Amino acid sequence: MKRTSDLKKAKRVGENLFLRHGIYYALFKKSGKQIWKSLRTRDRNIARARLDDRRRQMQLMTEMPRRQDIPPFSEAVEETIKTCRRDGMKPGTLDGVSTYTRLAGRSFLGPLKISSVRKEHIQEYLRQRYESRSGRSANLDLIHIRKVFRLALERHWRLDDPTTGLKMFAHKEKMIAVPSFEEVRKVINSLRELPLRNGSGIRASEFIELLALSGLRLKEAQSLKWGDIDWQRKVLIVRQGKGDKPRDVDLFSALHNFLHKLQKERGGASDEHIFPSSHGPIYKCRGLLLSAFKHVDVPRFSFHGLRHAWATELVKQGMDFGTIAAWMGHADGGLLVARRYGRHLRRDHFEMAAKRVKFHF
Question: How is 187-216 classified by DSSP, letter by letter?
Answer without folding.
Answer: HHHHHHHS--GGGHHHHHHHHHHHHHHH--
